[in-house]
Design brief:
Layout lengths: L1 E6 L2 E4 L4 E9 L6 E7 L6 E7 L4 E3 L7 E5 L5 E6 L8 E8 L3 E4 L3 E6 L1
Parallel strand pairs: 2-11
Antiparallel strand pairs: 1-3, 3-8, 4-5, 4-9, 5-6, 7-8, 9-10, 9-11
Length: 115
């Protein structure tokens, strides 16, 4: 079992920045990647960004060049730096971990971008 706790969401104006944090605890030795997903009202949950244990990152096209995912030194934390935020980035953001599949989810943190 892995427990995940996200923080850092909030309300920001378009063009602003936010930094999300996620701390993992429990059986973290089995994790090979961590990632951020988001779900807007009435939409399916979508992948935003991922980072592997070796530091390889990937991003959704909609956030490339604006968002940066990174791991903490202890490897049990993951961050999402979000710059030049747009109203369409408004969603609940979830942290997740990958073993063989994306498993274990945090409670989510709300990000609201006003126009």
């Amino acid at each position: 079992q892995v427990q995940l706790v996200e923080s850092g969401g909030g309300l920001v104006q378009a063009g602003g920045s936010l930094r999300l944090s996620c701390a993992a605890s429990g059986s973290i030795f089995s994790i090979n990647a961590m990632g951020w997903f988001r779900q807007a009202p009435g939409k399916q949950r979508e992948l935003v960004a991922t980072v592997t244990n070796s530091g390889v990152t990937s991003y959704a096209d909609s956030v490339k060049g604006r968002f940066t995912i990174s791991r903490g030194n202890a490897k049990n934390t993951v961050y999402l730096q979000m710059n030049r935020l747009k109203p369409e980035d408004t969603a609940v953001y979830y942290c997740s971990t990958r073993l063989t599949t994306w498993s274990f989810w945090g409670q989510g943190t709300q990000v609201t971008v006003s126009s």
